[in-house]
Design a protein that fits this description.
The protein is mostly beta strands. The chain contains 2 helices and 23 strands. Strands 2, 4, 7, 8, 11, 12, 15 and 16 form an 8-stranded mixed sheet that branches. Strands 1-9-10-14-13 form a 5-stranded antiparallel sheet, with no helix packed on it. The protein has a 4-stranded antiparallel sheet with strand order 20-19-22-23, with no helix packed on it. β15 and β16 form a beta hairpin. The radius of gyration is 31 Å and the shape is elongated. The N and C termini lie far apart (74 Å).
């Protein structure tokens, strides 16, 4: 049995620093604050004669020890963070960023990730909503959670409101019962601090369909019948990936609101809207469709031949009815003038 859930991943809030990065550098080392164990910055150079020197912010770095071509840094703190470059004469050989690992006491719910799958296909999306990040990336699988170089990182698009939006792909089969969890690792840079967290979840936990489509509504003798179709983004076949719908409606007489899981509604409704969810998982509900006005009475009923009485005049199929009626009216007017 699949359970209901939506995924919210909470991370870390970091102390603000003065220098920021808007990307993950090609080479960087993450150190713990005031750790007595030194970190090593490696000079990537070809074997060639000549002494190697290091620069930090254009000058020789202080409180460090050079061991051959490499640099050893102990008791790392904020003033020591940034880009270190190694040189042979006037030629820069390589550079490495020294960054700081976030501390546990800096944890906060102000940095979060929300993930959503529109269906059970191979894609889902995530939004990073913390406003202080300067670079964010996500990765799936053990390679990423274990920090291996073989991890395939996905960079997000930064939106106008400051959020980062990600599109990720997975290889889970949509036709088999989920036994394996997705393993999502997130890394972020806030100034020169680095956060890293891993969360595990089932795809079914983050499924939320798009809004369904109200195809038509028909007025019968006893009730109002609404026809609803799944969104185009929902998994197929629909007989296997079934959706359940909920209709909210407003009564015309007294303005009271009601809800129904049946597509057969009482007559005398002024407007309605619909939302859907996976009927087996009982997933998160979709967003509501826009309100649809419902009109009844002979003046507003479509009179096309073989067309059922419709109560939603703004629906697309009524445009054809209107065109036929207009042609018929113009044709009648032309015959009257000819006679």
């Amino acid at each position: 049995m699949r359970e209901t859930s939506s995924l919210w991943l909470c991370g870390l809030l970091f102390a603000g620093l003065t220098h920021g990065l808007n990307h993950f550098p090609e080479s960087y080392v993450v150190a713990k604050r005031n750790d007595l164990n030194p970190v090593t910055l490696t000079c990537r150079s070809e074997e060639a004669p000549g002494a190697v020197t290091w620069k930090f912010r254009g000058e020789a770095p202080e409180d460090v020890r050079q061991i051959g071509p490499d640099l050893s840094v102990s008791e790392v703190d904020t003033p020591m963070l940034g880009e270190y470059s190694c040189w042979r004469g006037t030629q820069m050989l390589s550079s490495t960023y020294l960054l700081l690992e976030a501390e546990e006491e800096e944890e906060s719910d102000s940095l979060s990730i929300s993930c959503r799958a529109k269906s059970y296909d191979c894609h889902f999306s995530c939004d990073w909503t913390h406003s202080g990040q300067t670079a964010v990336r996500l990765g799936l699988g053990h390679d990423c959670s274990e920090g291996r170089k073989s991890c395939h990182w996905v960079n997000g698009d930064q939106l106008v409101d400051g959020r980062f939006h990600f599109q990720l792909s997975h290889s889970l089969s949509p036709y088999s019962e989920e036994s394996a969890m997705l393993e999502l690792t997130a890394e972020a840079i806030v100034d020169l601090s680095v956060a890293r967290t891993t969360r595990r979840f089932y795809l079914r936990n983050i499924v939320q369909p798009d809004s369904p489509q109200i195809v038509r509504c028909q007025e019968g003798k006893e009730n109002l019948s609404v026809t609803i179709e799944p969104p185009s983004s929902w998994s197929t076949p629909h007989s296997f990936f079934s959706l359940e719908h909920e209709i909210e409606y407003v009564l015309k007489d007294n303005g009271e609101t009601g809800r129904s899981s049946s597509v057969l509604l009482p007559k005398g409704i002024s407007k309605l809207r619909v939302r859907s969810r996976d009927s087996l998982v009982l997933s998160t509900w979709s967003q509501w469709t826009p309100w649809k006005k419902v009109t009844t009475g002979k003046k507003n009923l479509c009179k096309c031949k073989n067309t059922a009485k419709s109560c939603c005049p703004e629906l697309p199929h009524l445009d054809n009815c209107k065109k036929r009626r207009k042609k018929k009216r113009n044709r009648g007017a032309g015959q009257s003038q000819a006679s």
